[in-house]
Specification:
Blueprint (H helix, E strand, L loop, with lengths): L9 E3 L5 E4 L1 H6 L12 E5 L5 E7 L3 H4 L7 H17 L4 E7 L13 H8 L6 E7 L3 H7 L13 E8 L29 H13 L3 E6 L2 H17 L8 E4 L5 H10 L2 E4 L2 H6 L3 H5 L10 H7 L3 E3 L10 H10 L11 H8 L1 H6 L17 E4 L16 E6 L2 E5 L1
Parallel strand pairs: 5-6, 6-7, 7-8, 8-9, 9-10, 10-11
Antiparallel strand pairs: 1-2, 2-4, 3-4, 12-13, 13-14
Helix pairs in contact: 6-7, 7-8, 12-13
């Protein structure tokens, strides 16, 4: 309010799980002391009940729905810039979270995301693997009849249902077994009721879809694992490759169950770089050893694929590989080798998208989708892996980026 008292202004937290609105924005959105917390969200309030400014998780939609839509020209420029950045980092296939309605980080603007993406596909020369936010799995199946789904080699695919089970450490909305060390008034919360999650997962599993569920807190990762195990008991389905996105806080029992059921952990090593300075204060020293436990996951036999969570984090794959190898001093007992880290972003990443028969390795019969590096990650000092350059990116045998 002090910086911008008259016109509506919103600061969006870098992870998208919280915003802070000024009084003018709350007034324009019609938010008042009588506005209830929506399902899966929280409005921070002053002692007298007036909204204080922070809107967490789904509560942000109360403000987002009143924000202006970017122009088509801006979206086209964004699509070109996204593709350029992906290719410059040697990325030949990307996972994309897509909205079908108001549920998701872009609020009701998300309903336009898929039609706009279909228009912008010619600007994007690499394959996308769509993970779709939808409360009706039929919407996902219908998308398989659109240009977003192309079964030809190298085509984009509509592959999975995306669910958000909880929030993040940074917003204190990750669903934890115990309260946060620096916020003892909260242990986070579920962003979707457990029964709704179960019903949606059951429908997706029965329809043959992969399920990719965001879960960060230890209570959330345990719950999602239990729900997946329940699905597999009720309706055994071989090789479904359900995933836990982030899988940030775990314990030994959850890891063992993930391994036994073939549940994938889709992890973002750059989170270590971003969070190592404050995570001890947020969780306490007893819980941080179980944060991003890559070595324990791999040793247990859990399939671990690497991702960036861009634009939240850097697309620099070599820097992410270095984070796996050195962990920048954060619980180095969980360090893994350069070859294990590279495999997370190549072979295992391809399997996590059911693409291992097309890409992920350089082998006869697979597509020529790969990057040429200036050095081998296992042939340079660990603290210099991040400096390895992408010399060329090749998709389908064609050079699409070159330094």
């Amino acid at each position: 309010d002090a910086a911008c008292p008259e016109r509506p202004a919103v600061a969006i937290k870098r992870d998208g799980h919280m915003i802070i609105a000024n009084t003018a924005a709350m007034r324009a959105a019609g938010v008042s002391p009588d506005t209830p917390d929506p399902e899966g969200g929280r409005i921070d309030r002053e002692p007298d009940g007036h909204p204080a400014g922070p809107f967490r998780e789904t509560a942000a939609e109360l403000i987002f729905r009143h924000m202006p839509m970017p122009s088509l020209e801006a979206l086209q420029q964004g699509a070109r810039g996204m593709a350029r950045d992906l290719l410059a980092n040697g990325i030949v296939s990307a996972g994309a979270v897509l909205q079908t309605g108001a549920e998701g980080p872009f609020g009701d603007k998300g309903a336009f995301e898929i039609p706009l993406l279909q228009m912008l596909l010619p600007e994007i020369p690499l394959a996308l693997y769509a993970m779709v936010l939808a409360r009706d799995v039929n919407k996902i199946l219908e998308l398989r009849k659109t240009p977003l789904h192309n079964d030809a080699p190298g085509g984009s695919r509509v592959g999975a249902l995306k669910i958000y089970a909880d929030g993040t450490y940074g917003s204190c909305t990750a669903y934890m077994n115990k309260p946060f060390a620096d916020r003892p008034d909260t242990a986070g919360f579920l962003t979707m009721p457990e029964e709704d999650m179960r019903d949606l997962m059951r429908a997706a599993h029965a329809a043959g879809l992969q399920i990719c569920t965001h879960a960060i807190g230890d209570r959330a990762t345990r719950l999602v694992t239990d729900l997946y195990l329940e699905l597999l008991r009720e309706n055994p389905r071989p090789d479904c490759r359900h995933r836990i996105e982030h899988a940030s806080s775990l314990d030994a029992a959850t890891i063992a169950d993930m391994a036994a059921a073939g549940i994938y952990a889709a992890v973002q090593p750059m989170f270590i770089h971003s969070e190592k300075g404050w995570l001890h204060g947020r969780l306490g020293s007893a819980r941080t050893p179980w944060c991003y436990p890559f070595r324990t996951l791999l040793d247990a036999g859990v399939p671990v694929c690497g991702a960036s969570d861009a634009p939240l984090e850097s697309l620099n794959v070599m820097r992410a590989v270095q984070c796996c190898v050195t962990r920048e001093g954060f619980h180095t007992e969980q360090n893994i080798s350069p070859s294990q880290a590279v495999s997370m972003f190549t072979e295992t990443a391809a399997r996590a998208q059911f693409m291992e028969h097309e890409r992920g390795r350089i082998a006869p019969g697979l597509r020529a989708d790969f990057a040429v590096l200036s050095a081998r990650p296992d042939a340079v000092p660990p603290d210099q892996i991040k400096d390895i350059a992408i010399l060329r990116t090749i998709i389908g045998g064609r050079t699409v980026f070159e330094t």
